[in-house]
Amino acid sequence: MSKSTMNDHPSVIKYRMKQEAAEEAHIAPIDTQWLRELCLHAGADDVGFVSINRTELDAQRNDIVNLFPQARTLISFVCKMNREPLRSTARSIANAEFHHVIDDVTHIGHQIVKELESRGIKALNPPAGFPMEVTSSGKAWVISHKPIAVAAGLGQIGIHRNVIHPKFGNFILLGTVLTNAELSSESQPIDYNPCLECKLCVAACPVGAIGADGHFNFSACYTHNYREFSGGFTDWVETIASSKNSKEYKAKVNDAETASMWQSLSFGANYKAAYCLSVCPAGEDVIGPFLADRKNFFQEVAKPLQDKKEMVYVVPNSDAEEHVKKRFPHKEVRLVSNGLRSKSIRAFLAGLPHMFQRNQAKDLVAIYHFTFTGEEEAQATIVIQNKTISVKMGHIGDADFQLIADSQTWIRMLAKETGILSAVFSRKIRIKGPLKLLKAFSRCFPS
User: Fold this and answer.
1) 4Fe-4S ferredoxin-type domain: from which residue to which, for each copy (predicted)?
2) What pTM was estimated for this model as a whole?
């Protein structure tokens, strides 16, 4: 078909007309109120809008642009979850609610993108699920919905690290749509935190992941609550692989655990707890019973979860193991690996604060200099003191302990594919300083 003939083709003519209309529409920013109504009509319970240039997105901007180079505006929306299912001691009921609303979030994001695309506006809705990506950087999600929701005025982060909506509380799931559209106005963060700091989430967490002082133990939460997600699944598969026969497997994993893993594989990964969400009384729609009778609210909502006899997954010699045995002796401690493995030096250094067990470091005061050579070169200074950890790139100050390691050997050692003694003997790892400081460092990061 010649160029002139193609230009006369009905499909080409209609496309040219549509393109001209779209270009005219893009001269002026899209009306924010129109877009808000579109999102609410698609099923969102609330929505906010954030420019890609907002300072709140500084830490995410590169990831967002790499994901969607045309991004100009982020649409953040929430979907409500029903409260009583999440409060049930039968976690199958709670998980059914999670899965149902996650499906809603996915569908609503799809509908918003579909409507925008029909009007010539480019848009993309990253998945709400976690995790969805596993890369060498260690990041297991394509976009961080929480900071975007906060910037869009949909709530603030509570001490349990969840977004609390001013009206719906933390009984919400988040979705995000990226678009190349510019809007007539955008949303701003709310000027207060709905979190009541009542510490009910502290009292209900079976692994002590939420400290009364605001500290958060990521490893403890991940090991138990996300047992049937990526890390726990890896540990379970390796348990199967390392078992000589079914009898040995059954000695390590009981029938209920196997059935639960099957259910997660068949119908969606199940959260083991998420009690922090269950007991939170924040939010205008939620706060009433708590204000009316705090004691009764605790007895009805938090106490059943505390009293529940259940299996709690913890890493051996972790703060979580100590917490469960002391605070919840009626719950069964299950010692497992959390399956968290760094696939790069960058991921290893970034993950140290999340893996750090502060009670294992209560008497430790030391400066460590790490030097990685070979395929991935890096230098870092790790300071542990007063039950806190600081990780900075480069060598800073005078080190109490120095470690020089081939990067790939170190990654294999973290994956327990090689031992430190063989690495030291082969000179792939060299150390300078008291060996007790290396042992003390290792105790802070059980996995």
Assistant:
1) 186-215
2) 0.90
Which tokens sit at 277? 């969400």
Q: Are strands 388-393 and 378-385 parallel, antiparallel or unpaired?
A: antiparallel
At 418 the pLDDT is: 82
Spell out the domain ranges in the chain: 12-179, 200-335, 345-443
**Considering only CA atoms, which of 409, 445, 441, 407 is closest in space to residue 425?**
409
Q: Is the Cβ–Cβ distance between 207 and 223 less than 8 Å?
A: yes
CA atoms of 233 and 278, how far apart (whole Å): 25
Superfamily per CATH, domain 345-443: SCP2 sterol-binding domain (3.30.1050.10)
402 contacts: CB under 8 Å, gap ≥ 6: 368, 369, 371, 431, 432, 433
* Residues in the chain with pLDDT values less than 50: 136
CATH architecture, domain defined by 12-179: 3-Layer(aba) Sandwich (3.40)
